[in-house]
Amino acid sequence: MQQVKTIVITGASDGIGAAAARRLHRTGHRVVVVGRSPEKTGAIAREIGAESQVADFARLDDVRGLAAELLAACPRIDVLANNAGGIFGSRTRTVDGFERTFQVNHLAPFLLTRLLMDRLVASGASVIQTSSVGARLTGRVDLDDLQHERDFGAVRAYGTTKLENILFTAELHRRYHARGVSAAAFHPGSVASGFGSGSGSFVQHVMGSPVVRAFLASPEKGCEQLVRLAEGTPGVDWESGAYYEKGRPARRTNPQAGDAALARGLWERSEDLLA
């Protein structure tokens, strides 16, 4: 008999997050839908009969509030799916003073995970990061310029944060796997969703093209790896610390993805920024 899990999914008001929430709730799990828009998040939660929380990852106080709400509502958290993220056009700073792409895609999920860590350890949880093949194509982490003050470009900043998702996964595994926490990152494929909308970048125009969208996977297809990781057993169905593409650990990725010293440095630098 399948274990019923408590699964928290961020970025679940649309796209693969919403599709995964539907699938996992349908198979009997307790799903907590987290999104930025109260209207869209509430609509998905009502549709499937799930719980919901609202948080804007461009505001770290929202992330802290979300963590407090989750700790109060969930005696255990079996899966934390850090799925929220996006690509943004111009370089802008959040109210917290960080470059928006860096904060939303890396720093906010890092903070949420750290705030929930005692509960995740006690639950023997899995932490899943939605990364991207963009990590390999455009990602480059410079610990002295994490916010791209010298070389900002929307696609470059996005690819770098997706590489940071992989590095965070590796370091999370190194630090906490012996205490029962497992971690994986994955590329969902090229999915027809709202990704890039409102960014003002060329990605918005490419992803919005009817011709391009005809060749993209549906969110229901794109969520399959997230669902497999959430329902699977680490060490049996998947390998903790790994980055997955097409259902298996990726054979090729960014050379920096395997740099253990860089992963450690990113973790420490992230903690410093949040201190």
Give structural notes.
This is SDR family NAD(P)-dependent oxidoreductase. One of its GO terms (molecular function) is oxidoreductase activity. The chain is an alpha/beta fold and 275 residues long. It has a single domain, classed as Rossmann fold, CATH 3.40.50. Helix content is 46%, strand content 13%. The protein contains twelve helices and eight strands. It has helices spanning 15-26, 38-48, 60-73, 100-115, 117-123, 134-138, 154-176, 202-208, 210-213, 219-222, 224-231, 260-274, and strands spanning 6-9, 30-35, 51-54, 79-82, 126-130, 182-187, 242-245, 248-249. Strands 3-2-1-4-5-6-7-8 form an eight-stranded mixed sheet, sandwiched between helices. Helix 4 packs parallel to helix 7 and helix 7 crosses helix 12 (260-274). The longest helix has 23 residues, at 154-176.
